[in-house]
Amino acid sequence: MLIRIRNLKKNQDGQAIILAALGALILAIGVLATVNLGHAIHERIRLQNVADATAYSLAALEARSFNFFAFTNRAQVSQYVTAMSLQSWIAVFWFIDLVLGLLADVTNMICTFACYCCESVILAPICCPIAAAICPVYGALRSAYKAFHKVAKMVDKLVGKVIYYIGKFNRFGTYSAQRLMKEMVRINLGSTTLLVPEITKENDPEAKWWPMGGVAAGVLNVLEYSEAFDTDADKLPNKDINRYKDERRMMTEITNATRYPPFVSNRKMSDFIKKIPVVGSILGAVWDILPFKIDIVGQTKMTSKIDKCEFDMSCRCKKRFGTQFDHSQLARGHVIVADQVLMLSISIAKIINFDFGNADIVSVWAHHSNGQHCIYDHWGPIPGVTCPNYYIPDPWGECTKCGNHKWDGIQPYIKFQPDSKDEFQGQPSTYTFLNKKPEDLGGQAYVQKFDFTVGSRTESLDTNIGVDPLISFFGQVKGLNAWSRGMAYYHRPSFKSGESNWHEHPNFFNPFWRAKLAPLGEKLDQFVGKLGIPGNASKIFSREFITH
Fold it and tell me: 169, 190 in Cβ contact below 8 A?
């Protein structure tokens, strides 16, 4: 028995079993660690995809709201063009009133002259037939003038009120819808400080905001969205035309550039004649070769009144609309002006060219305090003894202030505020910070913590994911973290030739806003630079904390 025991001590068989057991243990730990690492990578990619989807969704929400602002601003422009079109009709009606009144007074002059001439013995055979023919025409024209004058006054009163309320509709209708959309989006963005968006829950129910990250992302989303707006445009209208000039000028310039049809921008009787079916082309060709032409032209425009000229008669007659109105692109749209002018053109062999027109005969302008319209007028009547009363046409007409032509100017609208100091030109970003705690990671049941003790030394191997992060805010960022950045950006589609069209600055008049994912590092570098922190602080922060 003792001999067998001694032999066992010398026998070295079975050592491989111990080594195999240790190897199997190490292999099992390696397999578990490899499976866990692969699962962690899968969960990390999944979490990042959810963060990207959430940031993109928020950016798409902002882009849709910006396109809504573009469409509604265009709706405001179309309303202003409608107001100008109605103002054009008022000018046309008063021009017809002028023509009837002028014809009536001219026939009155002929009738009166022929009547007195008829009383003479010598000229009676010539003048009496003229008086007999002209005086009934005068009576008919005078009756037509009086009847149409009443119609023109009624149209002026009714349509003038409609123009005024078009501005009110832009304010209380279109702009109110814009403000509602703006606040709803802002509330939606702000709610992400506490509530996980639905798209995040749908993609990964286990993904959570962590309080500080959710608040930071929500606040940044609301701030960047709010900074995209020029709030001065919300303060319109204002009777002080020297305030909010840029906001007024932008809407006015776009509205004047959008004037359509030519009836608003450049109405001509000659163009109307040329468009008559069948005979229009022939009449147009004859018209073009005539050396003397009398044409009726008119236009309507949003502009500004220059106070130094007021409504002085001699000042108005120097230019279409008068020199008291700003004719440049700097006009601020607090006046709508329409005119209808009788133009005399003389063109002989294309050498002598001369145009003459009295731009003050008929004009209508709407203003917040003293809108006016100019109508035909005459002096008289001068009582006749045996013949009709005599009227003398007034070449300047009569300009009357009335309450029919009130206009409050450009109404409030949503305007984009570009930031020249920002490389992104003020285009807002959206941020998402997601966290997934270790216990919420699927497959963690297979993860173990191993302790190895050799003598007085103990080593531990913990294969749990994210239980000991490098940076921790009271244990709130344990597990996996993902931060993503989306961006609402403006890009007008390329031309048909394929040439890019990036030169158009962001605005709320063309609905070309889109959403995209954007590099987070760019904004981090910008934030860190604003804080005055040098070096690679943003890279360290993003590597060790955000993408932990």
Answer: no
What local confidence, expressed as pLDDT, does residue 242 receive? 78
For residue 243, the model assigns a pLDDT of: 84
For 460, counting Cβ atoms within 10 Å of its Cβ (0-12 exposed, 13-18 middle, 19+ buried), the class is exposed
With contact defined as beta carbons under 8 Å apart, do 361 and 98 qualify? yes
Q: Minimal CA–CA distance to 480: which of 221, 192, 208? A: 208
Q: How far is CA 227 from CA 168, 175, 182, 186, in A?
A: 27, 19, 12, 11
Q: Which residue is listed with tokens 């932008």?
A: 250
Task: Find, among 216, 97, 237, the residue nearest to 153 by Cα.
Answer: 97
- For 305-333, the pLDDT digits (tens) are 765 445 454 444 444 554 456 556 677 88
462 forms bridges with which residues in the sheet?
A: 449
Q: Which residues contact 507 (CB under 8 A, 6 or more apart)?
A: 70, 416, 490
What is the rounded CA–CA span in Å between residue 83 and residue 174? Answer: 15
pLDDT of residue 299 exceeding 60, the answer is yes
Q: Where are the domains of the chain?
A: 17-173+232-431
- Rounded to a whole number of angstroms, the CA Rg of the chain reads 41
Q: Is 287 exposed, middle or buried (0-12, 13-18, 19+ CB in 10 A)?
A: middle
What are phi and psi for residue 509, nearest 5 degrees?
-120, -20
CA distance 78 to 90: 19
Predicted confidence (pLDDT) at residue 159 exceeds the cutoff of 80: yes
On whether the pTM is more than 0.85, the answer is: no
Residue that has been written with the tokens 């003398």 in this structure: 392
Hunting for tokens 């032999």 — which residue is that?
Answer: 7
Summarize the confidence of residues 94-105 as an average pLDDT: 85
Q: Of 217, 224, 220, 223, whose CA–CA distance to 195 is shortest? A: 217
Q: Kindly report the three-state secondary structure assignment for every residue of 204-225.
A: CCCCECCHHHHHHHHHHHHHHH
Across 518-534, average pLDDT: 71
Burial group, residue 78, by CB count within 10 angstroms (0-12, 13-18, 19+): middle
Which residue has 């400080």 as its token pair?
Answer: 193
CA dist., res. 107 & res. 101, Å (int): 10
What is the Cα–Cα distance from 25 to 28, expressed in whole angstroms?
A: 5
- Diameter of the chain by CA atoms? 180
